[in-house]
Amino acid sequence: MNRSFLYMVWGLCGLICTKEEYKNNGIVLHEEHKHREICCPRCGKCHIVRNGYRHRDFLGLPIVGKHVILQLWD
Fold it and tell me: 65 pLDDT exceeds 80?
């Protein structure tokens, strides 16, 4: 999904849509933060899991009569 669409409709900035799913007459949008600036001091890798991942579901406004769920991954 286009980032400008996310900003104009819901006011979300700094997020990117990684996946869209269409389930049971609804749309699920998976969102992640645009920049992950945390890096491991030992190995230097920037993809680290700090205390695991978790997601939060937010109910968005309907689009064309379909329910919209925004899943934000932290």
Answer: yes
SS3 52: coil
* E strand or H helix at 68: strand 66-73
CA dihedral 11, 15, 16, 17 (to 10 degrees): -60
CA-based Rg of the chain, rounded to a whole angstrom? 15
- DSSP code at position 29: E
- What is the model's pLDDT at position 50? 63
Distances (CA, A) of 24 to 8, 37, 67, 70: 26, 36, 9, 15
| Contact predicate 68/58, CB 8 Å | no
